[in-house]
Amino acid sequence: MVFHSKIDNAYRAILGCVCVIMALSFLLPMTLDDSFTKQDGILLGSILLLTTLFIVWVMVDIRYELREDELYVRGGPIFARIPYTTIREVRKFDGFTGGFTIASSKKGVEIIYQKGLGYMVISPTEREHFIVALEAKITKARAH
After folding, report:
1. CA dist., res. 93 & res. 115, Å (int)
2. Closest CA to 63 of 8, 102, 16
3. For residues 73 and 120, is the Cβ–Cβ distance under 8 A?
4. β partners of residue 124
5. Does this model's pTM top 0.90?
């Protein structure tokens, strides 16, 4: 079962600001310094484009999969696999701060587990349905 991440308008605004600040930090030196060559501009423009695309990919392509034996969380190329047997607690979370956060909404789900970092905040679109489905998978995994 796959759940996608809920994306708040505040999250979109933060992402937009990050991209604008990055663009300005790359483009202002090129426009203000006469010693920049065309090759410098192409190189810096390419770095800006690749960096921006990477950040947007990580922050927008977020999904959560309830697999047979594990919760699989992915944001772009960054992912985590959390076996259901290691999950100690699942609860609602409201806010943007937290430990390892692969979330794009302030209304999320906090997962405390015994492996790796031990704490994660995610933001599935259907939070209540996700919690019920995850707890069912955890109960089933512990029964075996």
Report:
1. 20
2. 102
3. yes
4. 5
5. no
**Pair 82, 73: CB distance under 8 Å:** yes
What's the token pair of residue 63? 């999904």
Q: Which of 76, 77, 58, 50 is nearest to 15 (CA)?
A: 58
* Residue 92, strand partner residues: 109
Helix, strand and coil in the chain, % to nearest 5: 45, 30, 25
Mean pLDDT, rounded, for 89-111: 78
67-97 pLDDT, tens digit per residue, is 999 999 998 898 999 999 999 999 998 876 6
Whole-angstrom Cα distance, residue 64 to residue 3?
Answer: 5
Q: Which of 63, 83, 58 is nearest to 73 (CA)?
A: 63
Q: Which amino acid is at 2?
A: V
Sorted by sequence, the CB contacts under 8 Å of residue 11 that are 6+ apart come out as 59, 104, 105
Q: Which of 115, 7, 128 is nearest to 71 (CA)?
A: 115
Handedness of CA 116, 87, 85, 78 (dihedral sign): negative
CA nearest 136: which of 87, 99, 95?
87
